[in-house]
């Protein structure tokens, strides 16, 4: 099971801001744990591990899923790190989060699992479904579905809507216009360190 059920603020204190995991902010600045107060120079391995953990916790994926996506990204021509981020950004749960239809990725995942989301006139209940340019995302015609999403939309969203997505708020119809660009990825990390981490495996 890839879903993380533990304390989220603890992870945020350790890894930094993870908008996909939680919107809450910790008042404490030091990393969690009794050794969090000790300032020492991190090793090269720990820097790479930290970047990889940011990716895992933000997108809510397991180690196995991340490894599978790394292998997939390596087969595509171009920068492996950027392609990996594009694969993760185009997941259905993340797309709903970026559209502002859910406050976090776990909330978006719940919408998908409970069959509230329709892609190209077909109910999709798989969170890892990869959205493609031209996909039309709508909400199932049910009062409960609309009520949940309208409540979620009251939360302040991330910055502006990425340029590869468009949303009609009155009808709750969204369209994927293309593949996300690197500068629109809402997570601050160095993807090259993640590729380096997995190159040793």
Outline the fold blueprint:
Layout: H1 8-15, H2 44-59, H3 63-75, H4 80-89, H5 92-99, H6 105-113, E1 117-119, E2 122-123, E3 136-139, H7 143-152, E4 165-168, E5 173-176, H8 191-199
Antiparallel strand pairs: 1-2, 1-3, 3-5, 4-5
Summarize this structure as a short list of keywords or feature phrases.
RNA-binding; 5-stranded antiparallel β-sheet; Ribosomal Protein S4 Delta 41, Chain A, domain 1; 41% helix; 201 residues; Structural Genomics Hypothetical 15.5 Kd Protein In mrcA-pckA Intergenic Region, Chain A; 8% strand; alpha+beta; single chain
Average pLDDT confidence is: 82
Extract low-pLDDT stretches: none
- Shape, principal axes of CA atoms: globular
Tally of structural domains = 2
Helix content: 40-55%
- Termini separation comes to 22 Å
Total number of strands: 5
The CATH architecture term of the largest domain is Orthogonal Bundle
Order of adjacent strands in the largest pleated sheet: 2-1-3-5-4
* CATH homolog superfamily of the largest domain: Ribosomal protein S4/S9, N-terminal domain
Helix and strand string, N-terminal first? Answer: HHHHHHEEEHEEH
Task: Give an overview of the whole structure.
With 201 residues, the chain is of the alpha+beta class. The protein folds into 2 domains: 8-87 and 184-199, Ribosomal Protein S4 Delta 41, Chain A, domain 1; 91-178, RNA-binding S4 domain (Structural Genomics Hypothetical 15.5 Kd Protein In mrcA-pckA Intergenic Region, Chain A, Roll). Helices cover 41% and strands 8% of the residues. It is built from 8 helices and 5 strands, in the order ααααααβββαββα. It has helices at residues 8-15, 44-59, 63-75, 80-89, 92-99, 105-113, 143-152, 191-199, and strands at residues 117-119, 122-123, 136-139, 165-168, 173-176. It has a 5-stranded antiparallel β-sheet. Strand 4 (165-168) and strand 5 (173-176) form a beta hairpin. Helix 2 (44-59) packs across helix 8 (191-199). The longest helix has 16 residues, at 44-59. The chain starts with 7 loop residues before the first helix and ends with a helix.
